[in-house]
Amino acid sequence: MTDKTERLHLEVAGATHRELGLSRGAALRGSLGGAYAKYAELFRVLGVDEERERDGVARVIAALRGWRPELLEAFEGIAEGAGVEFEKIVALNARTELIALGDKPSSECSTLTAEIGEQRYGVQTWDWHIELDPFWHTHTVAGPGLRYAGLTEQGILSKIGVNEAGLALHFNILGHRDDCPDGVPMHVLSSVVLSECRTVDEAIALIREAPVTSSSAFTMLDAQRAVSVEMSPEGVFVIEAVAGSVQRTNHFQHETPLSAQKSEIYEPDSSERLALVRARLAEGRPVAPADLVRVLLTEEGEPPLTCRADMSKGYGERWATLATLITDPQARTIRILDGMPTDAETGEWRVLAV
Fold first, then answer.
1. At what angle do helices 69-82 and 50-67 cross, to 10 degrees?
2. Closest C-alpha to 110, from 286, 314, 298, 312
3. SS3 content of the chain, % helix, strand, coil (to 5)
4. Fewer Cβ in 10 A, N or C end of the chain?
5. Phi-psi bin for 305: left (phi > 0), alpha (psi -120 to 50), beta?
6. 3 state SS of 221
7. d(CA 221, CA 208)
């Protein structure tokens, strides 16, 4: 695992999407090839062979060419700056869509929002394969559109973040039986939302017009509203806050996409985690952001809101909480802990402001 004191931070800047890509790629020149190699290994473990990967990449390129061709220019810049093939950059950005072509069980992230005083906060654990821990970093992005900051992976445009307008975005993977790589990749859509949208309402409108053919949930919050937006090949469904809070794990909450969910991938784990979060919130209203982090603490025998890798298993089954995040859209900040909620009080939080 990466030394906790040396987690990479990128200042990505450029006047055009291509320049943004060059900036990102040049900063990752020594490690981006290794990140792709580790993901290619994961694709194979999950049953996605080279031919299916190449086909998925070609379909994503075609979709983006018809929707936001400038995003392909960003990928070209990353490839040139890092000295890595263009198709590998596309595969990294479409990793969610390529992984969806496989059928292995998964354990994933937990997210919630809450109103504390007059402000809204979001908190999330990012759970992922422990073998990929060396290949994530924080970044700030300043280019066409709004400036934003957050956490992402090597070569990937965006994941979790907050922008200068005060819109925060959290990210959870979902699974639908019709998922396919014929639309905008979810990590790419995250970057478009953060760079183009000033409010939750604007973000929902953008997502509704985007060519979405895979599944994830963006939990988004601004000064006025918090929602979780479920995206799938069946459409876009907005889950509103209840009692000032949104809670999100990795299953659909809207009945329409739920009826065609890949339940064998995330269940019963996801429903158990959501029930535990809701039970804890019912025990008492959070009065500080740290209270939200404590909601995600779990011990052995409890649903894994805090995920610990089982090192007796192989690649593709070693899930760990790689990072813990708190967004404050009104302050336009994101706090990122390199580790689990158990480290929240003793670990060093990286605070990014935009």
1. 130
2. 298
3. 40, 25, 35
4. N
5. alpha
6. strand
7. 17
